[in-house]
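INFO batch 0412 | record 1 of 1 | parsing
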Amino acid sequence: MADETIGVVGAGIVGLATAREIALRRPGTRVVVFEKEREVSLHQTGHNSGVVHAGIYYTPGSLKADLTVRGVSLLREYCQDRALPYQEIGKLVVAVREDELGRMENLYERAKNNHVPELRKISKEEIKELEPHAGGVAALHSPRTAITDYPAIARAFAQDITDSGGEVKLGFPVTGITNVPGGIEVSSGQLGVPPAEGWGRVRVDRLILCAGLQSDAVAKLAQDKQEPKIIPFRGEYMLLRQDRTHLVRGLIYPVPDPRYPFLGVHFTPRVDGTVEVGPNAVLALAREGYRRSRISPGDLLGLAAYPGAWRMAAQHWRTGIKEYRGSFSAAVFMKDAKLYVPGVGVQDVVRGGAGVRAQALDRDGTLVDDFRIHQVGRITAVRNAPSPAATASMAIAEHIVGAVFGDA
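INFO prediction complete | emitting tokens
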């Protein structure tokens, strides 16, 4: 129906892309985005590495693989149209030991099945031609892998929404989702505190939840099932000193361990000219715990009460200890990094920023790797949108909107 009102909870890049897709695909539909912060893209989007992933890592045929490949072309075209940064600086996925070559070969076959453009295997000598300061015995080279500015893209999406007649309600924390006759009431406010006039309750015909770090909490308001639960992992970065950034030309990544959804410590040039080293992956003590000192008793209690968290800890405690050692010691942090760029040491880096990943976890302790989207009546809940959600955001939006309106 052309006169419908569609609500979207969350003004990260996935929520904004989804709202924008509705506004473009269904003219006449009113779109309202609800965001608890006073700016868009302050959390996962705003702390993103800026990499536009080409689709190397993902299981062929998975939703993640399909949406990433589609998302890259959409994002590239959007950035070109809006004069937003999009730099194809290329990526090396480097094997530093002979025993990694089998995994690298498997990765190559997976990437070919995902139609990653111009990907090729290169020798130790060819690594040096592309990255004179890099180590490694062999690598995969993806010349079309790019970097961009995701917060700038998110702000452009928000502008597209308002230009189309939609609304982005900032400072509107969603505290209630109630089914009412013919629709849904979205409410905001603290208990016992009257909401500001015009901001307390909004009726929509359908609602899409894209709440990122808060996705399970917001889904609970919508009576969705408990699983998967969001476990926050903080990724901390070092920055190469400005006089050492010349040591890295493009993206330098390790061959990933298939047991984990994290890619390991890598070198990431940014569009502003800086070069990040990292991240590690440590359990955060708050969903928005960008600093070690940030602790949320409520988040910790929720974590302790979830059986999946204990099962995850039993499986991965050794890795967890290693990651925490790197969090407190720059020397330990840089030990892995030096395998890929041997000339870089503790003296060449300073502490950088951090991001928090919304890692979805099932009750059995399994780290959820693919996208998960639930339908609860008139509500669509994006329960897990892992990396590369930013890369795939416009394709995810197409998928969600197609599912909501039945025109996929």
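INFO post-check: The CA atoms of residues 282 and 324 lie 6 Å apart.
INFO record closed
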